[in-house]
Amino acid sequence: MLTRGLMKFEAFRNFKHWKPHQPKKMKRVDPMTGIEETILLIKKPRVMKNILVSKMEQDFHKGFLYWVYSCLSTEAVITYRVENEVKHIFVYDPLWLVNCSVKDIECLFVNKIGFKAEDREQAMQFQKVVLRRKWLGRLRKKGKLVKKEIT
């Protein structure tokens, strides 16, 4: 909604801060037929090469208690014990679980996430990331994961 308002604002002010991309027209003559044709040159979009993922606390598997999906804050909460203190890790994005250690992933894989019936779809996104990470770890151990060569 905010983006639409910004686009309207910019359109009325002749795009001072945000300029839409305009393809460059080029005329080319085909040497075989002699027909002139117009070609549009479009710049490549600027995109992020790597997705930024926040750091995760490591080695919580030693005192792991449970993990649940919280419908109030829409996040997964990992609860573990360090000595006599109970700590929580709040995971807002399932992708953050990729940064967990192998032992932590194994712990989360064995202990399934807790959730309410109506939150099943959201909670399973966290569980699927753990499942895929565990599966990839097995392939790497067996040497079956082959990296593609860049040509």
Mind explaining what this structure looks like?
The protein is α+β, with helices and mostly antiparallel strands and 151 residues long. It has a domain at 61-142. The protein is built from three helices and five strands. The chain has helices spanning 2-12, 102-110, 120-142; strands spanning 24-29, 36-41, 64-70, 75-82, 85-91. Strand 1 (24-29) and strand 2 form a beta hairpin.
Task: Compile the SSE list and pairings.
Blueprint: H1 2-12, E1 24-29, E2 36-41, E3 64-70, E4 75-82, E5 85-91, H2 102-110, H3 120-142
Antiparallel strand pairs: 1-2, 3-4, 4-5
Helix pairs in contact: 2-3
Rg is 25 Å
Helix percent reads 25-40%
Percent in strands: 15-25%
Strand order of the largest sheet: 3-4-5
The largest sheet, given as strand count, sense and whether it forms a barrel, is: 3 strands, antiparallel
Let me know the average pLDDT.
84
Order of helices and strands: HEEEEEHH
Tally of strands = 5
Q: Structural class of the secondary structure composition?
A: alpha+beta
Unreliable runs:
none
- C-alpha termini separation: 42 Å
Give the count of helical stretches.
3
Globally, the shape reads elongated
Q: How would you summarize what this structure contains?
A:
The protein is an alpha+beta fold. Helices cover 28% and strands 23% of the residues.
Using brief descriptors, characterize the structure shown:
151 residues, 3 helices, 3-stranded antiparallel beta sheet, two-stranded antiparallel ribbon, alpha+beta
